[in-house]
Specification:
This is Chloride channel protein. This protein is mainly alpha-helical. It is 62% helix and 5% strand.
Length: 595
């Protein structure tokens, strides 16, 4: 009976291939991926809230608890123990892990990524780690989507599209913002904006948001009501806010990178956790408002509950507007540090929620300052600047201006803020990208040459594997050979017209071309007199296996005009790459990744 059931299961992909076109199959799978993304989002959120409730609730109800501030250290320790003794693998960090799977693993994610974030992210955030659930939701959903692609033997292009569907579904479910979810997948994962890709993304987004509605109804994470409509006289204020959020974006990124560099210097992971946990505990003791994702604090901010937000056990008198502004700016600084430390110390989470938290604080302070100084005739709507501040920081930190615009527009249930969102997000993105060409998600991948972008030529080169184009069927000559040995060991036994030369340690020294030997190869009187050194010449250029990326290799062929270039690893000969094979592999990869 079991064998029969397994046989029927194996025939499912065959049935799909016979009865459905490729596009129909992708649409069907994308609906399932959206459903899974919604369920993952629901599960992660509920597990996190369950842990928080077991520990006593959020920071407001927890304020009387004298021990709540040590929870982040316990959370980081639990994540470390799970990773080391149960999982026995490095979990990796969020969106970057998924992008790496696209560029270097042909869209396949590791099996443990199906469930690793489902366990570790709620522990990290439930115990007070300062991060977001969005990235873990995307990772788990994307990993599950690759399981579909394995069963159905889909192409690399289809696998990448399904990862995008998972990301769109995750964001749609969390924020109930389907358009923003689709744009997030396109911006972050560099998907092609075609009808063939848009329909599966749309289906996944709708499927996911319906799942969210089933469990949570119309309730959303951020609660707000828009104030007065946008006026043309407000344009300079929103432009200035774009500049401020750009400065904050650059600062956050620098703090994030610096923190990671510092924590990488720890040789012991336990010491890393101990230091990170103590820093988080200290910050949480001073400002419990940064506990977990921070959405509760943002909602209180949008509701205008300044007294509740600025409540502090050490400084009780934060009632004046300027004191509130100072306290909110302190929260911005502490949140930047806490988020960076949480992730650098080994916690599992993303930066999406912290970015919204920081952006809301900056925007809110900006609105309060305008009203406090009496710059305008009538008081401005501070809530509007709070929301636009979120978009500005998101555009700067994540290099996703369109996602920022549509997300805030959708969660406010209207588009009256559309123009301000466009102004602030565009300015923030343009300024930030001048100083930091890559986002926090992609910075490390870009440095390693593993980043797939919207540039199709660059994307194909990144996805190509250098090992697949290396040819090693060349006869190797040694530096001490004479002409007779060259002919007997090289020319007679080889079908190639180029010969690599190495020394006794296999260090590459140069090449010999068959054309350079034609005039003397039949003159036996030269057999003992002529040596490799006499015939050898330098290669037009050399490809270092551990350093050169496909883009560099293409450039070398273009600059030298050569048809074959030697490949070395730490100076030792590995093989050759021919221009013809490289171009053939490029064309094949272009076909594979085109949706």
């Amino acid at each position: 009976m079991k064998l029969r059931s397994w046989s029927l299961l194996k025939n499912v992909p065959v049935w799909f291939e016979k009865h459905l076109s490729r596009q129909q199959l992708l649409i069907l799978i994308s609906a399932g991926v959206g459903l899974l993304s919604g369920l993952v989002a629901v599960l992660l959120k509920n597990l996190t809230y369950l842990i928080q409730s077991l520990l006593g609730g959020g920071y407001i109800s927890n304020y009387h608890n004298a021990y709540y501030f040590i929870f982040p250290l316990i959370g980081l320790l639990l994540v470390y123990l799970f990773s080391k003794f149960i999982l026995k693998k490095e979990i990796g960090q969020g969106i970057s892990t998924t992008l790496y799977s696209i560029s270097r693993r042909k869209g396949f994610m590791r099996k443990f990524q199906n469930y690793a974030s489902l366990i570790t992210a709620p522990i990290t955030l439930g115990f007070g780690g300062s991060a977001g659930l969005e990235a873990p939701t995307v990772v788990s959903s994307a990993a599950l989507s690759t399981s579909f692609s394995k069963v159905l033997n889909l192409t690399q292009a289809s696998r990448t599209l399904l990862i995008g569907c998972a990301a769109a579904g995750a964001m749609s479910s969390i924020f109930q913002a389907p358009i923003a979810g689709i744009i997030f997948a396109i911006e972050i994962f560099s998907l092609d904006l075609t009808l063939a890709s848009m329909i599966p993304l749309l289906v996944a987004s709708v499927s996911s948001i319906l799942t969210s509605y089933f469990f949570f109804g119309p309730d959303i994470i951020l609660h707000t009501q828009l104030g007065e409509a946008f006026e043309i006289s407000d344009v300079p204020f929103y432009m200035a806010l774009g500049i401020f959020t750009a400065i904050a974006s650059i600062t956050f990124t620098k703090v994030y990178i610096y923190t990671f560099k510092r924590f990488k210097t720890f040789k012991s992971k336990f010491n890393k956790i101990l230091v990170g946990g103590l820093i988080l505990s200290g910050i949480l003791f001073l400002v419990p408002q940064i506990y977990g994702e921070g959405y509760s604090t943002v909602n209180e901010l949008l509701a205008g509950n300044h007294e509740l937000i600025s409540k502090n056990k050490f400084l009780q008198d934060w009632s004046s507007t300027w004191m509130v502004i100072v306290f909110l700016l302190l929260l911005v600084i502490f949140k930047m540090i806490a988020t960076s430390v949480t992730i650098a110390a080994g916690g599992i989470g993303g930066i999406f929620a912290p970015v919204l938290f920081i952006g809301s604080m900056i925007g809110h302070c900006y609105g309060l300052v305008i009203n406090a100084l009496g710059i305008t005739k009538l008081p401005v709507s501070v809530n509007q600047y709070t929301l636009v501040g979120m978009a500005g920081l998101m555009a700067g930190v994540m290099h996703a201006p369109l996602t920022a615009i549509f997300l805030i527009a959708e969660i406010t249930s209207g588009y009256s803020l559309f123009v301000p969102l466009m102004i602030t997000a565009a300015i923030s993105y343009v300024i930030t990208s001048q100083f930091q060409p890559n986002s926090v998600y992609t910075m490390e991948l870009a440095e390693r040459g593993d980043l797939v972008t919207h540039n199709k030529d660059q994307a194909v080169l990144t996805l190509m594997d250098i090992h697949q184009v290396i040819e090693d069927n060349f006869r190797i000559l040694t530096i001490d050979m004479n002409l007779e040995q060259i002919i007997n060991e090289g020319v007679i036994k080889s079908k190639r017209n180029i010969f690599p030369v190495v020394d006794e340690n296999d260090i590459f020294k140069g090449i010999i071309l068959l054309d350079n030997m034609r005039s003397i190869m039949f003159d036996k009187s030269m057999y003992q007199e002529m040596t490799v050194i006499d015939l050898m010449q330098n290669a037009p250029d050399v490809i270092e296996l551990n350093e050169c990326k496909m883009k560099d290799i293409m450039k070398k062929f273009q600059e030298t005009g050569a048809w074959n270039l030697p490949v070395v690893k730490a100076g030792k000969y590995v093989g050759f790459i021919s221009k013809s094979k490289l171009l053939t592999a490029y064309r094949q990869k272009l076909i594979e990744v085109t949706v």
